[in-house]
Known about the structure:
Blueprint: H1 20-33, H2 38-42, H3 47-62, H4 69-83, H5 86-100, H6 103-112, H7 120-134, H8 141-149, H9 154-176
Amino acid sequence: MTHPTRIAKVDLPDLDTLSDETRAYLQLCEEKLGLVPNVLLSYTINEAKLKTFSRFYNELMLGDSPLSKLEREMIAVVVSSCNHCYYCLVAHGQAVRALSGDPELGEMLVMNYRAANLPGRQRAMLDYAWKLTEDPHAIGDADREALRAEGFSDREIFDVTDTAAFFNYTNRVAHGIDMAPNREYHAMNR
């Protein structure tokens, strides 16, 4: 078994050399998603980190949170837009299209989230995520108070921060190894 297309500009192990547990996980992804995200294939270079990354990602994006799955994906896209992360813009832009049922929303968030007609709560959330990405040391009490004024609880503020921070990390990894998005994402949910 070999990698179907270019995934990243680092040498990845042949899939046949991976542990049974990792191969089973990748097969499960293929069955559930119809593809294995290239980010997961990239992490096969270190199976322990793949396991940690997957567990953290699944808890952050699919686990219990007062933020909706759509809101978490919106944060992922806006952070990735600020960072110009091609991989995450394509992958998470598709997730926004899928969760919202609105292909235009996904495109607006990729290009300029301020062009989207969003409720004040989501606008404040994305303004905060953008600022935390672009100028993190400038975040202060006024920024958290702006979220509270839109009804965000402290737990929600933490979850917005945690999600934005995670995607700043993943954007750096994607840039560093020149990770390519799966081609399938481009056509999905249009």
